[in-house]
Amino acid sequence: MKAAVFHEHGDTQVLRVEDLPQPTPGPTEVVLKVHACGINRLDIYSRTGRTKIAPMPHISGSEVAGEIVAVGDTVRGLTVGQAVAVAPYLFCGQCEFCRSGEEAICLKGDIVGLGSQGGYAEYMLAPASSIVPLPEGVDAVSAAAVGLAAITAWHMLTKKAPLQPGQDILIQAGGSGVGSAAIQIAKLAGARVITTVGNEEKRAKALELGADEVINYREHDFFQEVRRLTNKRGVDVAFEHIGPETWEKSVACLARGGRLVTCGATTGNESKVNIWNLFAKEQTLLGSYGGTRQDLADVLKLVAQLKFLPVVDSTYPLERIGEAQQRLERRESFGKLIVTPSV
């Protein structure tokens, strides 16, 4: 099979499309023919060595959808030819967090394509326990587009910082995969959405997606704009995933009793918090890590019901994966970039 691999950390020049043996399933595993795999910043962290846990040579790719072509001897309920997605957060099923339904924070957890081999290949091995069947009418590209980013946003805004109708939310980077998903989820909850983008083209797309107010952060100070738009009150929820580049101002955008929920640290791992404001205004800072199999099933159901639109910027063949990752690094895309290995 063909796969995009790297043997060492570096820029996109370390990526190579190579011929590798097609995997065979163990007793509790399945083999997928990969029809689509979303590009995620985790792939860049893995390639550049920020995460430092990728087995070499390594195949990245966490947002996988395709067709089952082989099943292990003990696998039940899944069949060859079935259209499926892979829930990206791998889990042991035995620790206290798995037993309580919080499999994304499993003590022995991993992410597909991070510490394990991923979906930038024509075929991929996956635990049968991580397979989620696709609802009728949902294609592989759409499923891959919601495979990690959208379930992360869903988990953040339905489990960690649930919204109420009429509340205000600030969503950072509305053109990103997680940001474009958050816009739709917040609108489904009845919130007023304020989001940030980096150019006018993305501003128009964010408005089309349902955002109520869109701030071009290259032209305006988003903190001052949020104060203006909320009559200095601030927002009920701030949706963060950028890191120190936006962190302090995102916290400052919160209303009294407001909540900031974060799932990422693209621009770095450390920032500052004004502790006095935090307790005096009774604000809450929340971490959120990925999503569960049920989160993926919930989002796919919304896609099938036409209540959630998978936002796909463009698709790429396996041979152009470096180009696609560069576009993500340069913040040029709106929504998801998808690789189609078996097309």
Question: How would you concisely characterize the structure shown here?
Answer:
By secondary structure, the protein is an alpha/beta fold. The protein has two domains: 196 residues, Alpha-Beta Complex (Quinone Oxidoreductase, Chain A, domain 1), CATH 3.90.180.10; 137 residues, Rossmann fold. It is built from eleven helices and 17 strands.
Q: Which helices and strands, and how do they pair?
A:
Elements: E1 2-5, E2 16-19, E3 29-38, H1 41-48, E4 63-71, E5 83-86, E6 89-90, H2 96-99, E7 110-111, E8 123-127, E9 131-133, H3 140-145, H4 149-160, E10 168-171, H5 177-188, E11 192-197, H6 200-209, E12 213-216, H7 222-229, E13 235-240, H8 247-252, E14 254-262, H9 275-280, E15 284-287, H10 293-304, E16 312-316, H11 321-329, E17 336-339
Parallel strand pairs: 10-11, 10-13, 11-12, 13-14, 14-15, 16-17
Antiparallel strand pairs: 1-2, 3-4, 3-8, 3-17, 4-5, 5-9, 6-7
Helix pairs in contact: 4-5
